[in-house]
Amino acid sequence: MSGSIELVQTTKVYDQISVVDAINVKVDKGSYCCLLGPSGCGKSTTLRMIAGHEAVTEGDILLNDRNVTRLTPRQRGTAMMFQDYALFPHMSCLDNVAYGLKVTGVSKVDRYEQADAMLGLVNMAEHANKFPDQLSGGQQQRIALARALICKPDVVLLDEPLSALDPFLRIQMRKELKQLQQKLGLTFIHVTHSQEEAFALADQAIVMSRGKIEQVGSPRAIFESPNTPFVANFIGGHNVLKASGSLEFLSWSAGSDSDDPLLEANTSFSVRADHITTQPRSDKDVAVKAEVIGTEFQAQFYLVECVLEDSQSVTCYLPEESFDVHLISSGKSLYLYWSQERINTFRC
Ligand SMILES: Nc1ncnc2c1ncn2[C@@H]1O[C@H](COP(=O)(O)OP(=O)(O)OP(=O)(O)O)[C@@H](O)[C@H]1O
């Protein structure tokens, strides 16, 4: 396995604004890393700086512990796959894939042999003589991937690789990307604004906001314990609440034998929507009065939107068996419960 990446105080300034602001992160070799965040947070700029397509304003980029900050893209050992695939329309699939070897001076026989093998790897051997406009979106993506892989990079950089595909194909291609990455043992860095995509693929996810890193970790660790209100809101499925008003100190816990508050006043915390119930599971559960303002059927569960007495909104995902339409519908009052252990206080 090859291809560890380290960003050290890496910064990009455009028009006096730091769109990537002194970020520090390590990506292990052979891992699938997703750079995740909303539009404009600096994901693509970060990827382009790693690729060498964008100059770094300050800080460094290390690849396999070698400082590559001032090297050209070709000198780095990275390969980039662009959002629109950027295939040459006048070239066959075989020529598109072989092109990267042509510019490095590999003989015609050798480059066609390697391009053939690469087309086989992405299951496109039978389409070798077709042109890009004769291919489906998923097939074009496979050719773009083969073209990125032909120069045997240590790190493959993918900028929103699935965004041009329809939802069905997106799920199919994301499986193929992961399988290929595992088979080749390469490091993949994949930019996406989709939490679902990042969570499905990543060994390591890097969540960015406004040019800074908010959290780095496995999808599971991030989902179980978001570091900041931004992360909790962005990844979804969490309620971000404040210990104030009807939640003040969370001291009204039914079974609590102490008057000590669970949280200081005005502390922000999150609780997962699927960790909230309408029946207590223990006498240590937190209980809070709420009014239902809407419900939605979501196939695997019901989404129930509530408002607390102090106007904070709470969303819960209730399994079908605990959803009673007579008790849980707009305008009804009820108690919501969650375990004290499910309260996530933010670290930043
Ligand atoms: N060449 C440029 N000149 C000036 N500003 C730029 C340039 N490229 C990007 N920006 C700005 O830098 C910020 C980060 O852009 P970037 O493309 O990295 O975001 P992103 O997270 O990848 O967003 P998206 O998901 O929409 O592609 C944005 O505010 C963008 O307008």
Automatic annotation (TrEMBL):
One of the protein's GO biological processes: quaternary ammonium group transport
Molecular function in Gene Ontology: ATP binding; ATP hydrolysis activity
InterPro entries per UniProt: AAA+_ATPase, ABC_SmlMolc_Importer, ABC_transporter-like_ATP-bd, ABC_transporter-like_CS, P-loop_NTPase
Gene3D superfamilies with a match to the protein in the record: P-loop containing nucleotide triphosphate hydrolases
ABC transporter domain: residues covered: 5-235
Keyword tags: ATP-binding, Nucleotide-binding, Transport
Protein's name according to its UniProt entry: Putative spermidine/putrescine transport system ATP-binding protein
